[in-house]
Amino acid sequence: MVSMVQNQDVQQKDLDHAVVVAVTSRALFESETEEDDGPAYRGGVAFPLLQALQRVNEHLLEKDPTESLLFDVVLMTTDRQQQQQSSGFMSSTRHHGLEVSRFCFSSEEDFVESLLKNNIHVFVTTDENEAFQANQKGVLSLLLDENSASCPSEQLRVLFCENSIIRPGSGPTSSSREAAQTFSSQLGKMRQKLETSHSPLCFTLVTLHGGKDRCCGALKALRSVGVSVDEAYCLAGAPRSPILSLLRPHFLLSDGCSGSED
Amino acid sequence: MVKMSLDLVQVMSGKVKELQVSPSSNGNTEGSREEKEEFEQNQLSPAAKPKPVTGRRVRKVEGGVFFPKPENAVTIAVSSRVLFRTEREQKVFEQKGVEEYLRYQIEHENEPFSPGPAFPFVKALEAVNTRLRELYPQSEELFDIVLVTYNHAHVGIRLINTINHHNLFIERFCMTGGSSPIGYLKAWHTNLYLSADAEKVREALAEGIAAATMFMPEKLTEVSESQLRVAFDGDAVLFSDESERIFKAHGLDKFFEHERENEDTLLDHGPLKGFLEALGKLQKKFYAKGQRLDCPIRTYLVTARSAASSGIRALKTLRAWGLEIDEALFLAGAPKGPMLEKIRPHIYFDDQMFHVEGAAEMGTIAAHVPYGVAQKSNQQKTSMGK
Question: Is the dihedral of CA B354, B359, B361, B364 positive or negative?
Fold first, then answer.
């Protein structure tokens, strides 16, 4: 059973134009802490991401109060156990002043359905399985871990990672690739509305293999879909971890760059 | 002025075999080379796909071009403003702001920049690499040049076009879009960082990375295309600034006295010692293959110390460090310009702007190392531009 509740404290977004991001309650809150932390759950690994999304919205609205290309955040529970803590999530959201416009309660069996039904552009979770399932159905999924907690909260960092060596069978599905492209061009449009320096939204390109010409090609390709990159790193085979650990991206959009080095 | 060579063998400068550096090779090695790459499991990036795989060693061929691992290579990080001449663009940035600057860059994307002060140095590094690859085809002990700029990636395409136009073999870069490049310098295991921005250079020095600010000389004298020549000042560059402190505080006599008394005490190391060491390691690779007379790397010490007195401590220190320097020139206070003009180094490191400017006036490519006590009295901005 899926139910969707609007958050009355937050102005609802224009769903025709917004970029809808669904975040699981497990990713957003630490709801399983032993001690009772008072009136609200503590922020989880997705907390900085949400703050960064909010900051982008703030800047966009500052430039144009009628702006409709904004991030729309849906807090999603994906299993029955979490459903029972629904009131806790709603009050924690209020407590932290988070700009969550809707709460979606579903279970393991039907959460992917609700992602599709509600036109979710990006699904953010800490659960590998959930991410995999959503990906299979063509929903762009983002898997967070404890490192995500140290991503910046003042700037949303999106990393386009180009890996010319793709293991067969490990690349994204064609439908999720489509979702990634849609997401990229939406972000590209957002980026254009924001200032060049000290922007709350930052695009980074990393090419892992191949030399400058591959990087040049990637820059041009991204430009052609409306994505103007702010930072670019051409690794040409150098180990990626030291560089990626400095970049601290919230979103990693890749061509098989994720996970292990190959 | 006494010219002393620490090497037992006397080398006549200028008698180096001319190398064939083919312009279209762009660093490509002959035939296909296998690229050895070691991959570690990446734990850090938030992944769109689940299931990390355990690391494994993979050998890959990447179009026949060999990319060394940063920690094995001698990594030289250069900024776009020292590799190329970007004065016009700088003016646009200063006068009209960043948006106009980026628009200008994109508009002129297909116009390559002309060579900057670090250009001959980088070309010479490539010449050395060619020789190293001939002798040690599988080795990763090469010069690895990384373009590190805090320029915006919008300028990236123009920079790449320029690199291609000049046939430079630079395949790695960091365009940080305004944020500090220091973290990336460390990630690349940078052995030397060259920039036009003194602030960034100071930051790098504070992090223990050899760094220097480069300036465009008014006239550019021709330098060798086959032999890399690197010249160093002694105090506060290769050595610490302890002696300079004495000189500044108490004058020349006290300086001599101090040096005499401490002749057998090693000087402490300075910011460029590590770089000299790295050069020495590569030189030894040539010696090991019987190429001492023909070595494409040559190092020089150009110091105001005098051979008969204060210079001894410098030499003893170098010897104790196990560092060979090909030519040591003790000027005993004489101007450095004429000597440098004879040497024609691809780069000369000095901690004092006075010497850097003097060298540049005579066409030597000089780089300022903003380290030590000499900086406190040097507040004025150089008129040579950034």
Answer: negative
